[in-house]
Amino acid sequence: MAETLPKTDVVIVGMGWAGSIIAAELGKEGLKVIGLERGKERGLKDYYVVHDELRYAIRYELMQDLSKETISFRNNMKERALPMRQLGSFLLGEGLGGSGVHWNGQSYRFLPYDFEIKSKTIEKYGEGKIKGLQLQDWGITYDELEPYFGMYEKVAGISGEEAHFGPKRSIPYPTPPMKETPLTKKFKDAAKSLGMNPYHMPSANLSEPYKNTYGATIAGCQYCAFCERFGCEYGAKADPTVAVIPFARETGNVDIRNYSNVTEIIHEGGKATGVRFVDVLTKEEFIQPAEMVVLTSYVMNNSRLLLSSKLGRPYNPDNGSGVIGKNYCYQILPGSTGFFEEEQFNTFMGAGALGATVDDYNGDNFDHSDVDFIHGGSISINQSGSRPIASNPVPSGTPNWGKEFKAQSVKYYTRSLGIGSQGASMPTKNNYMDLDPTYKDAYGLPLLRLTYDFTDQDRNLYNYIGKISDQIMREMGANNVNERSNLESYDIVPYQTTHNTGGVIMGAEPETSAVNNYLQMWDADNVFVVGASAFAHNGGYNPTSTVGALSFRAAEGILKYSKEGGLLA
To answer: Where does the Glucose-methanol-choline oxidoreductase C-terminal domain lie (predicted)?
Structure first.
């Protein structure tokens, strides 16, 4: 029998970036907030002396335990979905701070084109350009969201510089860009010689110490190269446990409860009344009543909780009805690996977001009239640090084991460079999420089932952007550029990015979206679903800055709802 706890104003499910920002914003305005996090407490003390590549980067110390909860996957509806038994394509964070603890820190704003992608594409190229794509505008414009981007950047202390194709900004970056290195300079020089417009990557690894709007001091980066898959022991990477959560707790109105796995949103008559959760240590079950429920867990768990709680209308790919689980998108990752005979780069040093980027082929920054895809991708060099276990690039044709492999690995450890691209991912009717009819988790609940595969749009974008990155690599002076394999069917095992989006998408009409532009559910107005699950497609960047901006706007909406009620305009 579940124990019913005292009622609170707001219960938040998941305490990563989105949950932390909303807790802080509501707490400072006097609302009583309970934040439920299924993982353990985390903070700087847990990151001391964690430069252990095997433990954190290979064995995934900070990630979700798939033996208790995973997802099932298939490429198409004709296949039987099978559970993902090991982390690979994406890494699901767990614990206080969520994936915001182990991220690299790249902090781009989505482009104005992204928020009005359907209308802008049709206006310029006609209806035929989007045939086969399930596109929609987001129900908000960049200009409307711009102030909230500034709020996020001031909390995270983002280090950056103005970009040629960058959207307009009302404030400068809070801190200067990170250091220029021989590697970033070589990339910029090559891009400029090809007529492109490179700029320093916007970074949440701070270039200098900074005191944020919540009074937290974020240290300057040490360039140790242990960012991705690691917590920062110096407190130099903007992370919710450093930048936001201490302030939220200091309000006296935010109570964070770890080891609390939410299994159900309880609702009646079009309103949520609270959530059911399990203490993962004692297995005790509790009901937490609340005036408002805010979902800020990871993309996939937001969809899964709504589906298993029977809240909202499940998406049906056969007839296009419903919205929960709709428009799952990922990213397309063309890139180039180049090998240099003479030059040596200190690639074992760096930071998660130390790099340079060109946006000349992102969004609609170039003419798409004669290409068979829309959007594009950012193209970047990223000196995030080459660690010796996982990083051993060798030229094509080298055996993947043995004496020659070892010799080539040693030779090119500091003589190889990678150019990567984050290609946008467009939604189609057959890429979606629902509940698995066969497999369940440790708590007896159905797993989330992911149905996803690459499309012709993806392959065409991949080939086009890949050739551009090869061109830049050759201009940088590489003696050898590895051949890129063709983009075939999506495979969930090798790591790609943790930039999953969609499932609870935002829009202007309830017929085609799950939430409005405050991320308030159309079907239950006291439920807000916040995160990259709201993205109607995935752009050519990391999603975190856009998640941060949407979180500040959602917090504003929740405060307004607490006073006025009803659907927000």
So the answer is: 427-550
